[in-house]
Amino acid sequence: MRRLTITDANFEAQFARIVNDRRESDAGVSRDVADILQKVRQSGDDALRDYTMRFDKHPLTADLTSWRIGKDQCKAAYDFLDKPVKAALEMAAERIRAYHAEQLPADRDYRDGDNVRLGARWSAVEAAGLYVPGGRASYPSTLLMNAIPAKVAGVERLAVVTPTPKGEMNALVLAAAHLVGVDEIWRVGGAQAIGALAYGTKRIKPVDVIVGPGNAWVAEAKRQLYGVVGIDMVAGPSEILVISDNKTDPDWIAADLLSQAEHDPASQSILITDDAGFASEVEDAIDLLGARIATRRTAHESWEKHGVIVIVDDLAEQAPPLANRLAAEHVELAVDDPESYFAKIRHAGSVFLGRHTPEAVGDYVAGPNHVLPTGRRARFASGLSVLDFMKRTSFISLDAEALKAIGPAAVALAEIEGLPAHAASVQVRL
Amino acid sequence: MRRLTITDANFEAQFARIVNDRRESDAGVSRDVADILQKVRQSGDDALRDYTMRFDKHPLTADLTSWRIGKDQCKAAYDFLDKPVKAALEMAAERIRAYHAEQLPADRDYRDGDNVRLGARWSAVEAAGLYVPGGRASYPSTLLMNAIPAKVAGVERLAVVTPTPKGEMNALVLAAAHLVGVDEIWRVGGAQAIGALAYGTKRIKPVDVIVGPGNAWVAEAKRQLYGVVGIDMVAGPSEILVISDNKTDPDWIAADLLSQAEHDPASQSILITDDAGFASEVEDAIDLLGARIATRRTAHESWEKHGVIVIVDDLAEQAPPLANRLAAEHVELAVDDPESYFAKIRHAGSVFLGRHTPEAVGDYVAGPNHVLPTGRRARFASGLSVLDFMKRTSFISLDAEALKAIGPAAVALAEIEGLPAHAASVQVRL
């Protein structure tokens, strides 16, 4: 953990180092991924069979259940859930659905002063693919957050791919898949699964958009296939920035900082406060709570390696500009007047206003998406939304009169650009 | 040119081949581009100086004018324009601005039934970079179409990069840059210019989003930097699909088909009609007009290599499903009732309704963006818009009561996911 004070002589250099520190591993898997994608493109299901045996020790056989998890299995997993868990999942799904339904964009269709009819019409993609990691990072909440926007957008076919190492499945993910109505679940993972979704195989039909988190191989496969299909933003390790005065309970802030740290050793938790004593209380609380939780090893490693505490003089004045430079995935404003801080924050994935809004409610039940830009990408990127599963078709309609009004300008421009057929296509109609 | 008839025994196979025919060259420049980007990242302006001398034969010296084109030069180019051209450019800019202003997204801020305050706030990126190719593909209309959405979005700094081979500049592009208020123009091109915009150098500050067309090196550089910055969609050769009955003047349709063909030998023009005789008249008209225009070599090569005519039995029934499979960049509906066709077309970049709406009006003056998805990407991608220069920050605000309502569900889900600090961050506040 590093502790910086804004009055330090070398504060600017230290803070700049934190801003520029990319915690993402460039694993150098680019060539291997390219090979895998090419094999899947050429050999389809045969390539999937080979890679799945090699990487997941799972045999894909003539028996279709070795390839696909059935809807009945998902329903059974859902029925088997404890009542409170089922209720919690349902509340989460319902709230996520409600928030995303309000994102649906409006079509446009209007006539302007020249009697030119213009507009834009939104429509959903036909098919979307969702990667669900195996092992520890396989979360039912991730399935809800990725699948529900697709369903709300109107995607007809939602295919999940997920590795089942040695045949093992995650019952909670299957239950969530049942809840949101996933159409297909394929037992393949890694770059090969992304290749199958993009190019299609005999068994797996191609999709138009691929979303969902994954390891370095999955991320690289998505990057390489960007343009063949649509993909969501490149995702790096999770981050939280907490801006707190000394009136919040230090235990609360400690839990918030640890809630990011426990995700991954590469996660980053940052506290900005104006009270060095309060900062020390938070540190102590982190040590106490951090020692007690089952995720302590990961949380400890993340906090030690990447944790930061910044002490400023004037919180309201100095914290927002620092926050904008960090452009963090999550920003908590644990202060009396969060609104005035929020007004000054331009770059952030999601903002949590006030002391009673821990980031974790956003991970599960608040409604907004928890798939958010990391690694300072909030400067230019947004969280996942229904728009990631939709596209816009613009349209133009002119009658002879309207063409007379604006056509000659098009002819003039086509001529100076040296495109005579463009000019002719307007000219012949005038 | 290929001519297909829907009643042909092998029609499906032939049409599928056209759908799957990617006309994009995978130039295999990936390794070279990676090298260039790394050099620019390491050596900044020195690398730019070396590459610009090598590729553009343009010396970047201690004299700043060798690096930058000044605003005074742009103004001079603008003042020097012929009056009709100036008026045409101004009309185009004004109409593009008006259409894109209506795209500005609305913020959200509401309370739901549990008294949870939720919302989303849009903001512009701070800086955008725009690539303008040198040579033949350097068009003032491209500058307008890429720069105006950025300006409308509220981007503070808009930097253009453009190669000036042997020092040569395109006066029309400079004039357009003056018209829309470009902030900086740098005389660098190729992958090295994209690297400079993404990483920044001593002279060129980094940007958040890079847009604009370019050759294979530029496209690959953008692809490799996706995630470091935001980029617009990968672009391939242009396409037009014209759906026409036999009541449109064949000369009109011939000019429309040639207006795409003249862009590039790899462009594709497709006509779907229900009258074989009409199709032959269009073919003849293409031969006639095609022989007369200055772009005849390009247009001829494109039409011969990639042109397609499809004869169907029932235009209204059969053309829209074929159009959806092609998912073309531009779709013209030269029929009596374009509306009923449009209702059935789901995948298209932009649609031109009725006989008096040649695609070329959309290239210049109609208002909607002419940067549109190519190569069947209209299945999942949209044309350039203000949204490409903006991002959304979601927000959540709970008071103690609201946390009581939804917090326990978050705790339940955090516990089943094995994330105890997430659970604690809610629990300690309850």
TrEMBL record, chains A, B:
<comment type="similarity">
    <text>Belongs to the histidinol dehydrogenase family.</text>
</comment>
<feature type="active site" description="Proton acceptor">
    <location>
        <position position="330"/>
    </location>
</feature>
<feature type="binding site">
    <location>
        <position position="238"/>
    </location>
    <ligand>
        <name>substrate</name>
    </ligand>
</feature>
<dbReference type="GO" id="GO:0008270">
    <property type="term" value="F:zinc ion binding"/>
</dbReference>
<feature type="binding site">
    <location>
        <position position="422"/>
    </location>
    <ligand>
        <name>Zn(2+)</name>
    </ligand>
</feature>
<feature type="binding site">
    <location>
        <position position="260"/>
    </location>
    <ligand>
        <name>Zn(2+)</name>
    </ligand>
</feature>
<keyword id="KW-0028">Amino-acid biosynthesis</keyword>
<feature type="binding site">
    <location>
        <position position="363"/>
    </location>
    <ligand>
        <name>substrate</name>
    </ligand>
</feature>
<feature type="binding site">
    <location>
        <position position="422"/>
    </location>
    <ligand>
        <name>substrate</name>
    </ligand>
</feature>
<feature type="binding site">
    <location>
        <position position="192"/>
    </location>
    <ligand>
        <name>NAD(+)</name>
    </ligand>
</feature>
<keyword id="KW-0560">Oxidoreductase</keyword>
<feature type="binding site">
    <location>
        <position position="260"/>
    </location>
    <ligand>
        <name>substrate</name>
    </ligand>
</feature>
<dbReference type="GO" id="GO:0000105">
    <property type="term" value="P:L-histidine biosynthetic process"/>
</dbReference>
<dbReference type="InterPro" id="IPR012131">
    <property type="entry name" value="Hstdl_DH"/>
</dbReference>
<comment type="pathway">
    <text>Amino-acid biosynthesis; L-histidine biosynthesis; L-histidine from 5-phospho-alpha-D-ribose 1-diphosphate: step 9/9.</text>
</comment>
<feature type="active site" description="Proton acceptor">
    <location>
        <position position="329"/>
    </location>
</feature>
<feature type="binding site">
    <location>
        <position position="131"/>
    </location>
    <ligand>
        <name>NAD(+)</name>
    </ligand>
</feature>
<keyword id="KW-0520">NAD</keyword>
<feature type="binding site">
    <location>
        <position position="215"/>
    </location>
    <ligand>
        <name>NAD(+)</name>
    </ligand>
</feature>
<feature type="binding site">
    <location>
        <position position="363"/>
    </location>
    <ligand>
        <name>Zn(2+)</name>
    </ligand>
</feature>
<comment type="function">
    <text>Catalyzes the sequential NAD-dependent oxidations of L-histidinol to L-histidinaldehyde and then to L-histidine.</text>
</comment>
<dbReference type="GO" id="GO:0005829">
    <property type="term" value="C:cytosol"/>
</dbReference>
<feature type="binding site">
    <location>
        <position position="263"/>
    </location>
    <ligand>
        <name>Zn(2+)</name>
    </ligand>
</feature>
<feature type="binding site">
    <location>
        <position position="330"/>
    </location>
    <ligand>
        <name>substrate</name>
    </ligand>
</feature>
<protein>
    <recommendedName>
        <fullName>Histidinol dehydrogenase</fullName>
        <ecNumber>1.1.1.23</ecNumber>
    </recommendedName>
</protein>
<feature type="binding site">
    <location>
        <position position="263"/>
    </location>
    <ligand>
        <name>substrate</name>
    </ligand>
</feature>
<dbReference type="Pfam" id="PF00815">
    <property type="entry name" value="Histidinol_dh"/>
</dbReference>
<dbReference type="InterPro" id="IPR022695">
    <property type="entry name" value="Histidinol_DH_monofunct"/>
</dbReference>
<keyword id="KW-0862">Zinc</keyword>
<feature type="binding site">
    <location>
        <position position="417"/>
    </location>
    <ligand>
        <name>substrate</name>
    </ligand>
</feature>
<keyword id="KW-0368">Histidine biosynthesis</keyword>
<dbReference type="InterPro" id="IPR001692">
    <property type="entry name" value="Histidinol_DH_CS"/>
</dbReference>
<dbReference type="InterPro" id="IPR016161">
    <property type="entry name" value="Ald_DH/histidinol_DH"/>
</dbReference>
<dbReference type="GO" id="GO:0004399">
    <property type="term" value="F:histidinol dehydrogenase activity"/>
</dbReference>
<keyword id="KW-0479">Metal-binding</keyword>
<dbReference type="GO" id="GO:0051287">
    <property type="term" value="F:NAD binding"/>
</dbReference>
